[in-house]
Design brief:
The chain has about 450 residues and is of the alpha/beta class. The protein is built from twelve helices and 20 strands. The strands form six sheets. The protein has a six-stranded mixed sheet, with helices on both faces. It has a four-stranded antiparallel sheet with strand order 12-14-10-15, with helices on one face. The longest helix is centred in the C-terminal third of the chain and has 23 residues. The protein starts with 6 loop residues before the first helix and ends with a helix. It holds the Pfam family M20_dimer. Keywords: Hydrolase, Metal-binding, Protease. This is Acetylornithine deacetylase/succinyl-diaminopimelate desuccinylase-like protein.
């Protein structure tokens, strides 16, 4: 076990090795989506397992679950009287998209301006390397017990999400570090304390047996696309706020983006207004969002001069972290069924749901992590949230009803995860590794007190 006072120097000395490991891992195109070589996913699994073993995780094995990539699972026994910490991450990545849009090839990790560029550098391979760095900072003998869970199909959809409830004994821990998020801005240590829930709703309308001539029949024949558009406009008010009764929105008390900051990060075109009113955090983290993500209608390139007989929209609905997403889905369904634009009945159905998450932040793990992050970054820690969902968070929470769950990581708002030129700052990688190593000490001390 490394003395706490030595940790900053030790982690700094590890930086070249951690950078090299990250480059090696990013170079493996471990895309778990159908149609991509599965051997690359296995290569990444084997690399992570080997490096964890070198980092003191001697009890390591693979969880081979049906219809998903192999999961790296390992343990370091807890010293007598010490708590156990679960470390989570994933080694799979999103597809690169149009590689011509990247400044450097997505699977040729490139170091420039203090960052590593490449697909998965931020999401989530640098977080895996941060775990390795924290363990190596303690010489593979941390002052807490360790359980490591590194999966390989998080981006595509993994059956691991249902596994902890079936095998809770494998996931028992006093604190769970879900390292798949990051800082609201560079240099600002951030704990993610809430995740919005998610569901889908589908709206369709059929008004005619077939298209009819718009000159002969337009003006009286019911237009399916027009009816659908009229219904969709009722989902928001004139300012762009969600206007569906029953969807929860609360005051957000954590850190916020400024409107200019958010516009830059989101790539909003100059002169475009943002939707909604009130603080950004309420709009994107602590309130609902309804996004039209797909539309079945004639494409403009081949459109005929005809009244459209059928149209369908797919809606993605995000709900408050503490609202049941099934309840939110039903609110949207009931709203749309009541609309009846021009007296036309809509067919509205719901899709799958993913629960949100709201962390309890008053326990010893949060106190220890805030102190550890403050020391690593040299500044105060802030609370943030995310509009996305991490389904495994709730699965692990269900398997560990008494554990504290902390979401943090190497990413930042400008890291371009899932986009072109994804990158992670090496300073953030260093700070996460150091904070995690510090946390092991502080959490052990607080749990013994």
């Amino acid at each position: 076990m490394t003395p706490r006072g030595d940790l900053p120097g030790i982690v700094d000395a590890l930086r070249p090795d951690l950078t090299h490991l990250l480059k090696q891992l990013v170079a493996i195109p471990s895309i778990a989506f159908p149609g991509y070589p599965p051997e690359n996913v296995r290569r990444a699994h084997d690399f992570v397992a080997a490096e964890l073993r070198k980092s003191g995780v001697e009890d390591i094995r693979t969880l081979e679950l049906p219809d998903t990539a192999p999961v790296v699972y390992g343990r370091i026994p807890a010293p007598p009287g010490a708590p156990t910490v679960l470390l989570y991450g994933h080694y799979d990545v999103q597809p690169a998209g149009d590689e011509s849009r990247w400044d450097t090839p997505p699977f040729t990790p490139t170091e420039r301006d203090g960052a590593i560029y490449g697909r998965g550098a931020a999401d989530c391979k640098s977080n895996v390397i941060a775990h390795i760095g924290a363990l190596r900072a303690h010489g593979g003998r941390p002052p807490v017990g360790i359980t490591v869970v590194i999966e390989g199909q998080e981006e595509y959809g993994s059956v691991l999400d249902g596994y902890p409830a079936e095998h809770p004994e494998l996931f028992q821990a006093d604190a769970l570090l879900i390292c798949d998020t990051g800082n609201i801005r560079v240099g600002t240590p951030t704990l993610t304390t809430a995740l919005r829930g998610v569901t889908d709703v589908f709206v369709e309308v059929r008004t005619l047996a077939a298209p009819v001539h718009s000159g002969q029949f337009g003006g009286a024949a019911p237009d399916a696309l027009l009816a659908l558009m009229a219904a969709l406009t009722t989902l928001h008010d004139a300012d762009g706020n969600v206007a569906v009764p029953g969807l929860r929105r609360d005051t957000w008390t954590g850190v916020n983006f400024t409107e200019a900051e958010f516009a830059t990060i989101a790539g909003v075109e100059p002169g475009m207004p943002l939707l909604g009113t009130g603080p950004i955090g309420e709009r994107i983290w602590y309130g609902p969002a309804i996004t039209v993500i797909g539309l079945d209608a004639p494409p403009t390139a081949t459109a005929a001069s005809a009244v459209v007989p059928y149209a369908k929209a797919a809606l993605n609905v995000r709900v408050h972290p503490e609202q049941d997403p099934a309840e939110g889905r039903q609110a949207v369904i009931e709203h749309l069924r009541k609309v009846r634009p021009y007296g036309i009945e809509l067919q509205v159905t719901g899709g799958e749901v993913g629960a949100g998450f709201a962390a309890g932040t008053s326990g010893p793990a949060y106190a220890a992590m805030r102190a550890a992050m403050r020391r690593a970054w040299g500044t105060e820690v802030v609370d943030s949230a995310t509009g996305g969902s991490i389904p495994l968070t709730n699965a692990l929470a269900a398997a560990n009803p008494g554990a504290e769950i902390l979401l943090l990581g190497t990413e930042d708002a400008g890291c371009n995860m899932h986009g072109f030129d994804e990158r992670v700052l090496l300073s953030e990688l260093r700070n996460v590794a150091l904070a995690e190593a510090e946390f092991f000490h502080l959490f052990a001390e607080r749990m013994r007190a």
